[in-house]
Every structure is written in structure tokens, then in C-alpha cells.
Specification:
The protein has helices at 14-27, 33-39, 46-53, 57-60, 63-73. The chain is built from 5 helices and no strands.
Length: 80
């Protein structure tokens, strides 16, 4: 099994990471948004981890909101 990690580096696509993260999570028995949220920080490193830590509790409490924010903040066109 490949361990997924998202760093927010140039060339990384947050949409691809989130799709693969969700697929791997479901494959290991994590099937709810609450479970996905709980483990997401474990798969973020570097810039992405720092970004996550700075987000509000409310944003981090919603799978839809945090994934939208992650895609917006790290979209391929926003990363230099």
C-alpha cells in the first residue's frame, strides 16, 4: 500500500491527493467524513501541515469546507 502524503509543493494536485486519500480511507474501513477529518492531518506535511494548523476549528470540523479550502489554497495555479 502506498502511503499518501500531501506537502503542498509545486506540482502536487490537492484534488488528486484528496481523491486518493478518500479512496484509501474507504479501503481501510474509514467510511465517514468525521473519520476522514480525524486522520487527514496525519497525511499532511510541511507547508500543507502548517496551513492546516492555521485553519479555524469550524473549517476543520467540516469535510466539505476543509477540502474546498485545501483545493483553493493549493490549486496547481496558486502554487509557485
Amino acid at each position: 500500500m502506498v502511503v499518501l502524503v500531501f506537502r503542498g509543493s509545486k506540482g502536487e494536485d490537492p484534488e488528486v491527493f484528496l481523491r486518493e486519500y478518500k479512496r484509501a480511507s474507504i479501503g481501510t474501513g474509514l467510511r465517514t467524513a468525521a473519520e476522514w477529518l480525524n486522520f487527514l492531518p496525519e497525511f499532511l506535511e510541511g507547508t500543507a501541515s502548517f496551513w492546516f494548523e492555521r485553519q479555524t476549528k469550524e473549517l476543520k470540523g467540516s469535510w466539505n469546507d476543509i477540502t474546498k479550502a485545501l483545493m483553493k489554497g493549493f490549486s496547481v495555479k496558486n502554487v509557485y
